[in-house]
Amino acid sequence: MRTYLKKLGSVSIVAMAVVASSAMASGKVTGADYANGKSIFENGKGDVPACNSCHGATGLGDDNMGTPRLAGQIYQFLAKQLDDYANDRRMDTTMFVMNANAKGMSPQDRKDVAAYLNSVGRVFSGKQLQEASGGSDMAALKENGVEVGIAHMGKVIVNFGDVERGIPACLSCHSHNGRGVEPMYPRIGEQKFTYLVSQLKKFRDGSRTNDPMKQMQVVAKTLSDEDILNVATYLTQAPQTTMGNTRVPVEYLP
Q1: Alpha-carbon gap, residue 196 to 46, rounded angstroms
Q2: C-alpha 171: how far from its chain's center?
Q3: Do the Cβ atoms of 225 and 208 come closer than 8 Å?
Q4: 16-30: pLDDT as tens digits
Q5: pLDDT: which is higher, 134 or 220
Q6: Which of 30, 80, 118, 217 has the most crowded Cβ, counting Cβ within 10 A?
Q7: Is 106 helix (H, G, I), strand (E, B) or coil?
């Protein structure tokens, strides 16, 4: 067990070192025009529609449309996804519009949108970062006939994995309750349930392949349908804070 976890930690550290980025300084993205990013998100640009028409007024996503939460997501991850859509390294098989939308934006536009969305819902109080809650209404989904999982079963996989089945803990890359680790591992805590389920299945069946070093494809292949439902059920409502600590990691402003 100890050797297994040590190996996972080493993989995460090496992977992060390979893609380390200096794009962000003091919580702000260098060279990004936040006003332009906000304008594109709210109003669109040219033939590109407003992002909020699918992702919600505050970027929290929509389970009915299958769109993800973008608010507060790691900048480098958002920028990579937009670039991957623009260059067809990732295909939008949910709304079938993201490839065209990304191509309709300049590289600077994509950077600006990613930077703006990274800042949405993040309120700075002194030097303590607080984040808006999101996630899915699991009771409503269940009432509508959507199959959901068992949260505490998902929590086990998120925090500990399953060594006997070769499933690594989600936190070994995505940190506590999936709150994300810059620059590589996105925030998956408080992500929309429907989106989490669909993406894990897409990684598993190979219809999504733009993950660095194929890490998610490898992990997803170890998960059953039941595992995926359980993990998504836990993550969508997983708190950013740790037990006994009401604070999340501090991020400093200039």
Answers
A1: 31
A2: 13
A3: no
A4: 433 334 465 457 899
A5: 220
A6: 118
A7: coil
Alpha-carbon distance of 138 to 148, in angstroms, equals 8
Do 2-20+126-235 and 24-121 fold alike per CATH? yes
Give the tens place of pLDDT for each residue, 136-150: 999 999 999 999 999
Report the SS3 class of residue 245.
strand
For the chain, which residues make up each domain, given as ranges? 2-20+126-235, 24-121
Rounded to an integer, what distance in angstroms lies between the CA atom of residue 44 and that of residue 153? 41
Between CA 125 and CA 235 the distance in angstroms is 26
CATH 3.10.580.10 fits 24-121, yes or no: no
- Indicate the pTM of the whole model: 0.87
pLDDT at 62 > cutoff 50: yes
Query: What is the spatial distance between Cα 180 and Cα 247, in angstroms, rounded to a whole number?
Result: 15
203 three-state secondary structure: helix
CB 34 within 8 A of CB 112: yes
Pairing of strands 24-25, 28-29: antiparallel
Amino acid identity of residue 59, one-letter, is G
Q: Cα separations (Å) of 36 from 32, 76, 253? A: 9, 18, 21
Spatial contact of 235 and 159, defined as CB atoms under 8 Å apart = no
User: Cα dist. 127→100, 123, 247, 250 in Å?
Assistant: 39, 10, 11, 7
